[in-house]
TrEMBL record:
<dbReference type="InterPro" id="IPR026021">
    <property type="entry name" value="YdjA-like"/>
</dbReference>
<dbReference type="InterPro" id="IPR052530">
    <property type="entry name" value="NAD(P)H_nitroreductase"/>
</dbReference>
<protein>
    <recommendedName>
        <fullName>Putative NAD(P)H nitroreductase</fullName>
        <ecNumber>1.-.-.-</ecNumber>
    </recommendedName>
</protein>
<feature type="binding site" description="in other chain">
    <location>
        <begin position="10"/>
        <end position="12"/>
    </location>
    <ligand>
        <name>FMN</name>
    </ligand>
</feature>
<feature type="binding site">
    <location>
        <position position="39"/>
    </location>
    <ligand>
        <name>FMN</name>
    </ligand>
</feature>
<feature type="domain" description="Nitroreductase">
    <location>
        <begin position="7"/>
        <end position="165"/>
    </location>
</feature>
<keyword id="KW-0520">NAD</keyword>
<keyword id="KW-0285">Flavoprotein</keyword>
<dbReference type="Pfam" id="PF00881">
    <property type="entry name" value="Nitroreductase"/>
</dbReference>
<keyword id="KW-0521">NADP</keyword>
<keyword id="KW-0288">FMN</keyword>
<comment type="similarity">
    <text>Belongs to the nitroreductase family.</text>
</comment>
<feature type="binding site" description="in other chain">
    <location>
        <begin position="134"/>
        <end position="136"/>
    </location>
    <ligand>
        <name>FMN</name>
    </ligand>
</feature>
<keyword id="KW-0560">Oxidoreductase</keyword>
<dbReference type="GO" id="GO:0016491">
    <property type="term" value="F:oxidoreductase activity"/>
</dbReference>
<dbReference type="InterPro" id="IPR029479">
    <property type="entry name" value="Nitroreductase"/>
</dbReference>
<dbReference type="InterPro" id="IPR000415">
    <property type="entry name" value="Nitroreductase-like"/>
</dbReference>
Amino acid sequence: MELSQLLRERRSVHTFEDRPVSPELVMELLETAIWVPNHRMTQPWRFILTYGEGRRKIAEAVRKIKESKEPDPSKKKEVGQKFYDKIMSIPMILTVLMKEDPSLIVREEDYASTSCVIHNFSLLAWEKGIGLVWETYGWLHESIFRETMGIQPGEKVVGNLHIGYPAKIPPAQPRIPAAHLITVFDQA
Ligand SMILES: Cc1cc2nc3c(=O)[nH]c(=O)nc-3n(C[C@H](O)[C@H](O)[C@H](O)COP(=O)(O)O)c2cc1C
């Protein structure tokens, strides 16, 4: 597939077939995805790959978080179970972490590079028929989740990528043409 077609046709995918994704394939794609521009070559990223029975760790952590936040005691169990089931319905989750440099400038550059890794990975996956969505829900920053995943102080959770074979591909969301957003200086 032409790169331009791949870029235009990729979508964020939210619902997946009940079909496993090969961890070997994901690792192979990730090895290519990390070839991003990276000022100072800090390579600040780290990844946690969760699938199969491993998903129960995340599902249990989310259950605890959601139960603790539900004010109505009669609804706690139901709400916790809903989020537990949601996590268990996702074939694979890639948690993307980034070392947070004390310098704001370096941190911003590092976040830009890590975002490039994620998008590279997302395009490579799409080329193989695998969909994903980059999720940044609030509970990524809860201590229960961090402890469950062994996330160290000074590591930023950039996102959870929900990965799987798409059950449904959402329609494209329109983009403002770049031509409407560009200022050109071509004369003195
Ligand atoms: C930094 C970032 C965070 C995102 N967080 C979420 C999220 O928490 N939940 C979600 O459904 N989509 C999330 N998305 C996906 C966007 O909603 C999606 O890219 C956008 O709707 C455009 O759709 P498309 O990717 O199919 O073109 C995120 C995307 C980015 C780049």
